[in-house]
Amino acid sequence: MEPLSSLDINLSGPNSDEQAVDNAPPHELGCTAEILESMEKVEETSFEEVEKVSDNNLSWDFPHWFEFAAMHQADGGLGDGLGGARMWVDTTLAHSGKKSIGMEVFDIEKSRRSEFVIFPSEVVGKEYCVSYWLYLSEDWGLYDPNIDWDWFEIGNPYSAGGAPYASIHIGSPDENQEFFSIWLGGRDKDGNMFGTPSKRTAIPKGRWFQVSYYVLRDNKDGEIKVWFDGELLAKKSGYPTVDPDNPKFTISIAKIYYERGDKRPHKMWIDDLTIHSNQGKN
Ligand SMILES: [Ca+2]
User: Is CATH 2.60.120.200 what the domain over 6-277 is classified as, yes or no?
Assistant: First the structure.
């Protein structure tokens, strides 16, 4: 299923507060202590012990997969998704210790996506909090007036192998401005689209920043909140986040996915992942 196009999104400015998110207090990093108190830590890794064992897997015991999606032939794609994207264990850049995981799309003609997918169903209950650190390359491309999208998907807080899903979008309405626009876009289980109002935030290129999100899985009154460096940037509540007919779901903790007309390579790194949940407390 194709993601939202920019035309579907309400790109309201920072002062368009009709549906403004209620910001958490400054420096309150992601899921609050109050939320985490009700949960258990079900996974924590600094990626210090892992090695790359295949193009798609690390020697990490949490179920995971790196996906390098093909460009569809209808969109001018020629390959099977391989040969234009990769992942690696990086020993030159780390938030903790000496290792992080690097990801790259370097030839969009061959691979349209580089995505770090985890399969949390066995350890995650109705609510979960995910926290990790991301690093976008200093030369991460921004707005290009000659392409359809002016945004990137950098993660999916939840996805049922398609809808329902939510994606974290970053964009830049003006490459001369030192801010990103952040919003959530996605679909419910019937394919109906949503997009939260965009929020501006200082541009996090060439430095580590913390991404965290809270997800309440419910087929009617779900909720999702996304923070960068502790600032609440997107929130959606009273919304179905589950397909009751498909209990399995995935989280994409890091993802490079963008407009095929943008030929620039893009790199990101991820480190220090923590997952809390209330498994067994529902
Ligand atoms: Ca590390």
Answer: yes
